[in-house]
Amino acid sequence: MNKLPISRNEGLIFDIQTIKNLRLLGIVGYLSGTLPLSTQQNNFLGVPLRLLFEELLYVVVHHSEYYIVPDDVMFQGLYASLTNNDLQQIQFQAKMSQLRTNGKKIPDSAMIYNTEKEPVFHEIKNTSSHLPNVNTWNDHFNQPEVQTKLLFQLLQSRPNLSHSLADYLIFSHLRKNGYFITAGLRFGGKFVAYPGDPLRYHSHLIVKPVYNGEKIELKKLVNGGRLATAVKKVYVIAGLTNKIDVDGVEPQLELDPKEFITSLEASPVKTFSFEWAGFG
């Protein structure tokens, strides 16, 4: 399995092989590593690879071989959300995984629990493994229960969850249609879409999301269309036909965020393109 380290609620990938694997999935990200005393231009930046929120969410939802590894702040939030039963179950699953890895026989379920329903495997309280921190939990992060809580915590960190989910659904729609997506701020949009790997192709689309209830100013459409045509691209506005209402669905979102997001992807995305005729 591949790790997706999180720092300040953003994905930062340092492993070169993971970066290559993500590229094969159409996840580009952008390199952001440089030296403070020797800053470089964008073409010479190195690891880590910084992932857009939409890229991170797309990988976690659609590719189970990748899992989130939190930073210290995110981990403390995770640990605070766990009950005693959650902790016992996580320790039990980790011990079972260790037994399978070592090729040892796993005891029958009747032998694993005693009559008080307490696990046979106990942590010794005066050992370092009992102290909760990221390093001692490395073997636990790939468990489904832990990933569910981490994903929910990541979604909660968004300042406007409904807009973030709308951006993600537009990203997912473009990705499923074969486009490679990067950030589009330098062209006045949210995303820039490429027909293939950006190392081989120029971008074709500047994508600007329009949220439910948002008014579209004619002046902005003209500006976007003129800018896109001037740089030989097409200006696209995209939006959802169904409104995303995150109020009242928090219990469902907390229970299984992957299933909730997958159900949202069934909502159709509508796109409209603009080109400035006789210009550029």
From TrEMBL:
Name all tRNA intron endonuclease catalytic domain ranges.
Answer: 167-243
Q: What is its EC number?
A: 4.6.1.16
- UniProt GO cellular component terms: tRNA-intron endonuclease complex
Molecular function, one GO term: nucleic acid binding
What's a GO biological-process term for it? tRNA-type intron splice site recognition and cleavage
Q: Does the keyword tRNA processing apply?
A: yes
Signal sequence coordinates: none
InterPro entries, per the entry: tRNA_endonuc-like_dom_sf, tRNA_intron_Endo_cat-like_sf, tRNA_intron_Endonuc_cat-like, tRNA_splic, TSEN34, TSEN34_N
Q: Which residues form the active site?
A: Y194, H202, K233
- What's the top EC group for this one? lyase
Domain TSEN34 N-terminal residues, every copy: 6-62
User: From what superkingdom does this record's organism come?
Assistant: Eukaryota
Record Pfam families: tRNA_int_endo, TSEN34_N
Q: Any idea which UniProt keywords this protein has?
A: Lyase, tRNA processing
- Quaternary structure and partners: Heterotetramer composed of SEN2, SEN15, SEN34 and SEN54. Interacts directly with SEN15.
**Belongs to which family?**
Belongs to the tRNA-intron endonuclease family.
User: What is this protein for, i.e. what is its function?
Assistant: Constitutes one of the two catalytic subunit of the tRNA-splicing endonuclease complex, a complex responsible for identification and cleavage of the splice sites in pre-tRNA. It cleaves pre-tRNA at the 5'- and 3'-splice sites to release the intron. The products are an intron and two tRNA half-molecules bearing 2',3'-cyclic phosphate and 5'-OH termini. There are no conserved sequences at the splice sites, but the intron is invariably located at the same site in the gene, placing the splice sites an invariant distance from the constant structural features of the tRNA body.
Please identify the protein, giving its name as recorded. Answer: tRNA-splicing endonuclease subunit Sen34
